[in-house]
Design goal:
By secondary structure, this protein is α+β, with helices and mostly antiparallel strands. The chain has nine helices and seven strands; from the N terminus they run H-H-H-E-E-E-H-E-H-E-H-E-E-H-H-H. Helix 4 crosses helix 6. The protein is globular.
Amino acid sequence: MNFSWGSLRPKDKQEITRHAALREGSAMPHALARLVISAGVLAVASQIAVAQTAASDPDAERKADLVVAYKILVNEGILDSFGHVTVRSAKDPNIFFMPRAMPPALVSMNDLLEVRVSDSQPVDPKGRRVNGERYIHGEIYKARPDVMAVIHSHSQAVIPLSLTPIKLRPVVAQAGFLPAETPTFEIRDTRKAGDRGMQVTDSARGAALARTLSSYPVALMRGHGEVVVGSSVKQAVVYAAYVDINARMQTQALLLSRDIVSMNEAELFTPQEFDINRPWEHLKQKTLDDAAKAKVDRAQFGLEQTQGKQ
């Protein structure tokens, strides 16, 4: 994409010229002033290019968030060598994006493949091996039009609760999105005679898992981990982080007493009552350097309904 002085908006030209004039007034050589203007043109052109890319590809932001999600969940110890995250396409809800078969810590934008919701098969594998458990994602997207992102992890904090009659319950304030009792998927109820394994590697197993998930944001998988869904990558990642924290807190409380207090209906929250940006940026910045942290918009946090005097 080529940019010239003539392609810039008048207000961008004025701003660049103003800064150059200020520097010229400070005895800046004309050659250097021209260099400053050129640098300004490039900087503004870069911003325009980013904006135009986002406008021309509605999926650009979703795919970028997907790559960040892998970094966050690996950093938090929620994704191990086999976990995976996907996002539904904004352009075509019948498509979702999923990395090729690979360790989560290595995922980049170039590794993402388009996968059909209808049969969980890649549109074009590009000669790459696809993830065997893509049916988890495809069948959930098929059953839940409201879901835009799916996470499957092998959280070591969650798995113990999937092995006992004790249900995962919301016990910490930030996990108020959880139901009173989180359902657990039992693959033995789905596995056909002669079949082996714990993984969800076909449509029948994926559909059974989607039925267990039902309308909930989370379902445990006995001895395997859990699935977490959200209306965005950000929401799913934050939910997955707090599912892990909630499971650890619940297990620790059970060591002290079998009689623990979980949250009741009045203490749970709706998505509109939870500032998802705050934990997302907190988790994201833990993966970045100080220069990147300094660029974060500090004014974006806080719910509007909490700002007035109560």
